[in-house]
Amino acid sequence: MSTPVRTAPPVSATAADPDAAVVALDGVGKTFANGTAALADVQLEVAPGELVSFVGPSGCGKSTVFRLIAGLADPTRGTVSVMGTSPQRARRDGSVAYVFQDPTLLPWASVRDNVALPLRLRGDGRRERAAAADRALELVGLDGHERDLPRQLSGGMRMRVSIARALVSRPRLLLMDEPFGALDEITRQALQGELLRIWRQADDMTVLFVTHNVFEAVYLSTRIAVMAPRPGRIAAALTVAEPYPREAAFRTSPQFSAAVAEVGAALHASALPAGASAPATEADRVQ
Amino acid sequence: MSSDVLASADAQARDAAPRAAEPGRSAAPRRRPTAILDAALRGVRRALPPLVVLVVVLLAWQAITRWGDVPRYLVPSPTDVASAARDNAPDLLTSLLTTTREAVTAFVVSGALGILGAIGLASSRTIERSVYPYAIVLQTIPVVATAPLIVIWFGASITSVVVIAAIMGFFPVLSSTLTGLRATDHRLTDLFALYDAGRWQTMWRLRIPAALPYVVSGLRVSSTLAVVGAIVGEYIAGIGNGEAGLGFAITQSAIRLETPYLFAAGIAASILGIAFFQLVNGLSRLLLGSWHESEMRVER
């Protein structure tokens, strides 16, 4: 991706500082209408250019955190700020993008039209859209498939289209909610590598990544937020020190195993009442 | 991450499509004449069983009416029906054309109103909640009860017939389209919300295309109802002279006990219905063929 020209974030008292957190969650709680406490007192700051993974068992509120950051839902307590402003305002100029667990493509539209959708919705011209879409497709290695329909592609390729669609508006913040969960291991590893390459090429793009795969989290992240359920909260935030680019060898290195063990321990500790020993089933499920 | 893992995964994905397409593509030019012959044979083989049944039924029918001492005015033989159709060919053709015109107009009107009505209802929950119940109430009033009123309003004319047929065809399109517009995948709705799509953008770019399979199935029902409605409308409006449709031809020949001609008109009506249904099937293939499961030809 060529160096994107970024417009200044919407005017706000706190957004003047370029080093300000991309995402800041301050005492965030979310209670659903039916009384379920999905999140309680979540505290998190993410700096520009970070790749932060959220790991935790099902029902720990990972997706809820994402919906709050994307502005698809509002917190019942605390404040969520994205690039110094509200999530709804931050996403308005296309600087926040979202990759869902499923590719969520329009089945009747070509790959190019699917990728260009965000630009079409904000009213960009046809030529502009096609050029940007083709650039994004090249970035994910799908050039040559512009005219295909989603059903003609494999699962991994569809996910690439979904990633290209997220990248087409040159976001500063990319939210990925278990994007590789449904893929086979080979494809998953390939896409992890691609994600790291794209993230490193993009200038200061911040990625937030939900997964319940500890290995994936360790391989990708600069930081890992370990979440615990009932109510959802961030139990620990761990830094992965390994420098980038991370080669395949990293996956089999002692540092990798150590990091995985550390995250695993944090998950166990968070899933239990203080003092009890970890039940094996819980550990198996998490890993 | 090593790049060779990437490359191999990519290669697998890219290779899959061409390889699958290859056999058909390379085989076609080499043995083109046989391929066409094969296709023709396959068509004949598929059409043969129902044709055999038809011939057997017609022969049995002919035999029973000839040797079974059945009066002609009760059950005419196939040859009686054929000669009645031949003798009155101009009348039958005029009737068929009239009914076709009425049914086509009614179908287009009911389709357009049904789709537009559903979009109107789906664009606001309040409108839907306040108007839709009455649409259901209207639907439950039998057409036979409203038809005389329509004839009073519009006279014994083709207009009345079209209105009656359109009323019959309207509701299936409305309810089916509305269901489709409500059934949009919520993940896609989220996606559109995330990109701040406006209400009409979401309607036009997401909800309407996603509802097309439902629209088509509504149209399919209403296509046959339009033919039925046109014939029922002609019964009630009772237009004669040069404007007589199949419905009028059927009632008249029933009164005169011209049973062979009644059969001929009935068969013409059913052919019209089948043609209509096939037309909508073609439309469906055109709209959904490339992407929707219901129209995709899966190779086994």
UniProtKB/TrEMBL annotation, chain A:
Residues 23-256 form the ABC transporter domain. The keyword Membrane does not apply. The keyword ATP-binding applies. It comes from the Bacteria. Keywords: ATP-binding, Nucleotide-binding, Transport. Pfam families: ABC_tran. InterPro entries: AAA+_ATPase, ABC_transporter-like_ATP-bd, ABC_transporter-like_CS, ABC_transporter_ATP-bind, P-loop_NTPase. One of its GO terms (molecular function) is ATP binding. This is Nitrate/sulfonate/bicarbonate ABC transporter ATP-binding protein.
Automatic annotation (TrEMBL), chain B:
It holds the Pfam family BPD_transp_1. Keywords: Cell membrane, Membrane, Transmembrane, Transmembrane helix, Transport. Residues 96-280 form the ABC transmembrane type-1 domain. It is found in: Cell membrane. GO terms for biological process: transmembrane transport. Its main location: membrane. The keyword Membrane applies. It comes from the Bacteria. The chain crosses the membrane at residues 47-64, 103-122, 134-155, 161-181, 261-280. One of its GO terms (cellular component) is plasma membrane. This is Hydroxymethylpyrimidine ABC transporter transmembrane component. The lineage of its organism: Bacteria, Bacillati, Actinomycetota, Thermoleophilia, Solirubrobacterales.
